[in-house]
Design brief:
Rossmann fold, binds nicotinamide-adenine-dinucleotide, two-stranded antiparallel ribbon, repressor, alpha/beta, Arc Repressor Mutant, subunit A, 9 helices, 214 residues, six-stranded parallel β-sheet, 2 domains, WH-like_DNA-bd_sf, CoA-bd
């Protein structure tokens, strides 16, 4: 699964970079250029592409339109990507108002909360009571949910979602939730990311001080 996730991450990166190249008016791209833009080796690009029968030629490179179309199918970008948000507090509301989702084809179709004061079935993104979650997800064939509830509610929410057609969550609560074969969980811990950045800067500073001493 981990191996797959790395390949999928790279395919998504190739797609994003090629879409930007297309917007700049490019029609074809060589594996070397794509590799440079994605921070991988050209041989890895060729290996990834050949694994999915994406072909180009030595002299002309890859046709951007063809590759993006193939990547769209492989990544499911040719289908609607609908998500729901669970927990409409500060972070949930921020995600609901985020205007970057439509640009990449993701649509927030509804949100859910246990607090009756925040419910609003008439809002552009309706906010329903959490007790309606199972029915809504199955009726609307939702595959992904964003979890922005407090830590104590996160695990039980995953157990509820596993009983629906939902196949994965992006979890913003600090608890690390575990994926299994049928249900993928991406944990996003913002504090930890910031902490790691500080650690990396600290290590870089120590390393450069040592190099200066030499
Ligand atoms: N606010 C941030 O900047 C931020 C940043 C990173 C991570 N987080 C994490 O995201 C989560 C949400 O943070 P927040 O600041 O938005 O909190 P919040 O208290 O503002 O919002 C939480 C919302 O979840 C709802 N809720 C609680 N239990 C629920 C349940 N069982 N079902 C449905 N809804 C439920 C509450 O009614 C509330 O509206 C927390 O786990 C937090 O640690 C927040």
């Amino acid at each position: 699964m981990v191996g797959n996730q790395e390949v999928i991450r790279r395919l998504a990166k190739y797609r994003n970079v090629m879409r930007k190249m297309k917007a700049l008016g490019l029609v074809k791209v060589f594996s070397d250029n794509l590799a440079d833009a994605c921070g991988v080796s050209a041989s890895l690009v060729r290996k990834d592409f050949s694994m999915f029968n994406i072909t180009g030629n030595k002299r002309g490179g890859y046709r951007i339109d063809d590759v993006v179309a193939r990547l769209n199918v492989l990544l499911g970008k040719d289908k609607k990507q609908k998500i729901v948000i669970i927990g409409c507090g500060k972070l949930g509301q921020a995600l609901m108002n985020h205007n970057g989702f439509p640009r990449v084809g993701i649509r927030v179709v509804a949100a859910f909360d246990s607090d009756p004061r925040v419910l609003d079935a008439e809002a552009p993104i309706p906010i329903f009571h959490i007790k309606r979650i199972r029915e809504f997800i199955d009726a609307n064939k939702i595959k992904v949910a964003a979890l922005t509830v407090p830590e104590p509610s996160a695990q039980s929410m995953v157990e509820t979602l596993k009983k629906t057609c939902c196949s994965g969550v992006i979890n913003f609560s600090p608890i690390v939730l575990k994926s299994d074969e049928d249900f993928l969980i991406h944990n996003i811990n913002i504090e930890q990311e910031i902490e790691n950045l500080f650690y990396n800067i600290h290590f870089a500073e120590i390393h450069s001080a040592k190099t200066d001493e030499k």
